[in-house]
Predict the structure.
Amino acid sequence: MVIGGTIIPSDNVEQFNKTMQKYRNEQKMFSALKWSKVTNQKLTEYKVLINNIN
């Protein structure tokens, strides 16, 4: 399965979705994540995302 350019094995999709939902709720990041438009104001939130899915 491919989500936004991220390759996720099908047996990990459920966990990925839970992780993303938790991240979005905690960081209040409910709109689309646009990597080409990361602002200094939102940089920390994007770093938290990478640390959560890494």
About this structure: The longest strand covers residues 2-3. The mean pLDDT is 84. Helices lie at 13-27, 43-53.
